[in-house]
Specification:
The chain is of the alpha+beta class. The chain is built from eight helices and eight strands, in the order αβαββααββαββαβαα. Helix 1 crosses helix 6, helix 2 packs antiparallel against helix 4 and helix 5 packs antiparallel against helix 6.
Length: about 290
């Protein structure tokens, strides 16, 4: 979230089931979030990668798989795609993985898709995070199906300085509660990332919202007050080891979302294929790929 992440970055040295990212948005962010990252080789992003990912989407669609996911691609940093899958619990995640393994047809299709996709990648990794409602703001009010971008910020808190981090977040949250339309969701790393890693998602309908964020800094400073700003600087310097913020755009052709999302904006989530010469345009399927095993 740039409103929190970007501001702290400037102050110091400073990223199934239900989902913020991929299921029933009315339920709010998921309790457990898995993030799979694919680093794409130079020249292999865009339509080339989309085509490879469509095999996963088709496999899950054919199987009518109940777990959905959202894919996003980077607009900054290394070329990469993130696949975001939300679950109600770790038990739900386990159940999804076991069901996938038991479905021979689906597993075989995923293996074939994985071989083709792997040729385009320079690396992959994954992490698992838990939702921190106490460090989020208005996250349950966001309709992710209508969003088009995420600003994703990663904060690494120094060992032993968790209380300083918590206090800094409380100060920032209290100030932004006074500013309308500011919202974010915070997740804390459990697996696949260093302890003390916090990932903050800020959803946006348009990049014009970044311009708005920059103008809100003065409102934020006014809400904090001089003493509050001084305290925030001190807490940030003590608590934060490093941070990074990046922009990602949603990738509907690489995502497997539910009908509830598609119905909100069919032209976006299930875009029609371009009509061939002398033919009629057909509708492309927009399907899924949960955790790659």
């Amino acid at each position: 979230m740039k409103r929190l992440a970007g501001f702290l970055l400037g102050l110091s040295i400073v990223l199934g089931g239900v989902s913020l990212c991929a299921a029933q948005e009315k339920s709010g962010p998921p309790k457990v979030l898995t993030i799979f990252r694919e680093f794409v080789k130079p020249g292999k992003a865009g339509m080339v990668h989309e085509k490879a990912e469509s095999a996963f989407v088709q496999a899950f669609t054919k199987a009518s798989w109940p777990t959905h996911y959202l894919a996003v691609t980077s607009l900054s940093g290394k070329p990469r795609a993130l696949f975001l899958i939300g679950y109600d619990s770790f038990a739900a995640w386990e159940k999804d993985n076991q069901a996938t393994e038991k479905n021979a047809t689906l597993s075989a299709a995923l293996d074939r898709a994985g071989m083709a996709d792997g040729e385009l990648l320079s690396g992959v990794d994954g992490g698992t995070f838990v939702y921190r409602e106490d460090q989020s703001l208005r996250a349950g009010t966001v309709h992710i199906a209508h969003m088009r971008y995420f600003e994703i910020s990663a904060f690494h808190v120094k060992p032993g300085h968790e209380k300083d981090w918590d206090e800094a977040v409380k100060l920032v949250t209290a100030a932004y509660e006074k500013i309308p339309d500011v919202r974010w969701a915070t997740f804390e790393a459990v697996y696949g990332a260093p302890s003390g890693t916090f990932i903050i998602f800020t959803p946006m309908k348009s990049l014009a919202e970044v311009d708005t964020e920059l103008m809100q800094n003065k409102q934020f400073e006014a809400a904090m007050g001089e003493e509050g700003m001084k305290k925030l600087r001190e807490l940030s310097a003590r608590a934060i080891e490093s941070s990074e913020s990046n922009l990602f755009q949603f990738a509907p052709k690489m995502s497997y979302v539910g009908d509830d999302w598609v119905n909100k904006d069919p032209d976006y989530w299930r875009p029609k294929a371009a009509a061939p010469a002398g033919g009629k345009a057909g509708e492309k399927k927009t399907e899924k790929k949960p955790a790659k095993q």
